[in-house]
Amino acid sequence: MTLAATAGLALPTPAMPAQQAMAKTQIYDPKKRKWVNYDSRKAREYYSRNKQQPPEAFRMQAVKFRTAEKAGTIIIDGNQHYLYLVQPGGQAIRYGIGVGRDGFGWAGIVRIGRMAEWPTWTPPAEMVARDEKARKWAAGMPGGPDNPLGARALYLYEGDEDTIYRIHGTPEPWTIGLDVSSGCIRMRNDDITDLHARIEVGAKVIVLMQGAALYKGV
User: What's the rounded Cα separation, in Å, for the pair 145 and 136?
Assistant: First the structure.
């Protein structure tokens, strides 16, 4: 069964009623001709039986994309779990992403302040305080295949201030398309490696998410 996720930004359409636009994740089942919930259990099952791949719509692909933003801008549609890298000529490269779970979603305009390959993960003090697993790595976890930041990390800044949010890889690629993180944007390692090679420090990042708190200063 081939499943395709929604395309475009998180706006109601005739095929997607307003109440579905506010749902966490739904993917379209063309055989049943209806939108179905996509949760962590279904994500693991799909990933396991499809050659360790997420649904096709969450895989990297070129798409038509209308925006006034210049090429090289990143636009994140948190509701639909897509990251768009704007290209010339009304095009974009679209990647599937995982986003913040309940209470950790945010929206705003930031920039890429720096980038790293196989980065060290240092959990913020708030995470160390609430998460016993994070406490173990309070001084930093070396980069590697088990590191939560995965193969690459793009560090998001507001002005000259680190927001503590990142766009990064993940050792849990089956979570793409879900609300799972503590506010960071996660991608498959192959996808973040591709994005890292295409993007530059200073690039503008626009994060859109219905019902999310605006990042301070935006």
Answer: 17
Cα–Cα distance, 152 to 115 (Å, whole number) = 7
What are the two backbone dihedrals, phi and then psi, of residue 42, each rounded to the nearest 5 degrees? -65, -35
CA angle 208, 133, 216 (to 5 degrees): 30
Known active-site residue 184: yes
Question: Taking the alpha carbons of 211, 29, 83, 143 in that order, is the dihedral positive or negative?
Answer: positive
Q: 0.85 cut: is pTM over it?
A: no
Give the pLDDT confidence of 157-207 residue by residue, as tens digits. Answer: 999 999 989 999 999 999 999 988 777 999 999 999 999 999 999 999 999
Residue 175: strand, helix, or coil: helix
Q: If you search the block for the tokens 């993180």, which residue do you land on?
A: 181
Start-end of H helices in the chain: 18-21, 40-49, 125-130, 132-135, 189-198
Active site residue 196: no
CA nearest to 22, candidates 94, 110, 105, 108: 105
Catalytic one of 76, 93, 184, 187:
184
Of 81, 168, 188, 196, which is the active-site residue? 168
Residue 156 predicted with pLDDT over 90: yes
CB 80 within 8 A of CB 8: yes
Classify residue 178 by its DSSP letter. S
